[in-house]
Amino acid sequence: MFRRSNALKTFLVLTFLLAMSYALDPDYASSTPNADVSKAEEAKPVQRSDSPEDMQKLLAETAETYREAKSFRIEREMVDTTESELMTLSNRSLSSVIAAPGTRYRIVRKDAWTWYIHQSDGKTEWIWYPWRKQYVEQPVKRSSDPEGLSPAEDGYVAWLKQIDKKLASGRVQPPQTIDIGHGRVNCMVIIGPPSPRQHDPTMQQQTTYWIDRDRKILVKEQFVMRSTVPEHKFDSEGTTTYTTTEFNTSFPDSLFNFVPPMGAKRVEKFEFGPVELVGKTAPPLRLNTLDGKEFDLGSLRGKPVLVDFWATWCMPCRESMPHLAKLYDEFKGKGLALVSVSKDDDPADAARFVAKYKYSWLNVADPKWESDGDWGESGIPRLVLIGKDGKVLFESEGFDEAQEAKIRATLHHMDPTFPAVDGSRE
Fold first, then answer.
1. Directed axis angle between helix 347-357 and helix 315-331, to 10°?
2. For the whole model, what pTM was predicted?
3. How many other β-carbons are positioned within 10 Å of the β-carbon of residue 228?
4. Of 178, 31, 11, 7, nearest to 81 (Cα)?
5. Nearest one of 196, 217, 176, 241 to 59, comparing CA atoms
6. Helix ranges, 161-314 (H)
7. What letter does residue 376 receive in the DSSP assignment?
8. Coil, strand or helix at 74
């Protein structure tokens, strides 16, 4: 059984937590003197060299820029790639933080896996997952610590306020001018200090920082990690570009107020595991088929429906397919509908697999894992059997002979025209 964090994400956990940690906790951004950063240094150098004293001075001024801001907006784009002999992965994510006096803030994070919004108008805070169509509403928590940080000031914003301390032992490099999307920027370049958590001697790690010497803000970071062992091909690179940084702007109140969109549901807390479904009406499922047609699970009301969540990269899923095909061929004449929900990033991968093995039942695509909002996150393969009345009769994570026997027994219990399991097991 694979969980969402286990196929594409399993490998990503090993590299993404390392390669992305510099963005979430730049203390982890490590430096190895011999690491190859040729990919990071395509920008043209400027003439004047920087001394260590210049570096300390600019770091202090940069930290003060962030610490003295009464309000701010910081937007970032993170692009990561990892190549090994086993897999090539890439990921792009976006984040923004807006903060204003009176504990008002709006934090947005979005990538291939999740979309998260956390905002406060100073009295009430909301945490909102648009793809799940769920939100939590609660009073703003007041800290008794006068130096307590709001959510907008935590994480990398807190690190930026201490950049003078975090990079104090860094190594200044030749200056560069770089293009960050809205013009050329004259930058001091610093290679960050080694991380105390750099344990693997077969890996070289280095993070480089570009500081705009005119505005005294960080505009770019680049993390590089690669294997030093010829037999182990591993190359990971992550670049964070600060696309917007502005201070002491008067932001409109509407930016911090949350108005629930149509269809959004308020919950007491978020359930990040599988939702308990047995005995309840099946959640909605509206997706497109692999050939692009609209599908609504409600259209199958009146039939027993077996919903199969799967992906081509999930080996247990692939192994279960012939058994599902046999079950479907045996019972489709009695009205059983089978709906397979592909979790592949590219629906074309699922379409090719289905065509290759001539699986004829209904297949729909969920590349953004939208169904997790109503059905809950779970491992795959996941099987959910829905009765003719729309109520969930059975569900399981994983599929084997025992699970198949339970599905058969449940079908027989619902409708005796379905044959009983051998040995009268129900």
1. 50
2. 0.60
3. 14
4. 11
5. 217
6. 163-166
7. B
8. strand
